[in-house]
Amino acid sequence: MQTETPRKYKILIWVLSFVLPLAIAGLFTVRIPNVPRLGFLPPIYATINGFTAVFLVLAVRAAKQKKLTLHKRLIQTCICFSVAFLVMYIAYHITSDSTPYGGEGFIRNIYYFVLISHILLSILVIPVVLVTYVRGLTMQVERHKKIARIAFPLWLYVAVSGVVVYWMIAPYY
Question: Which residues, 6 or more positions from 75, have their beta carbon under 8 angstroms from its beta carbon?
Answer without folding.
Answer: 59, 133, 136
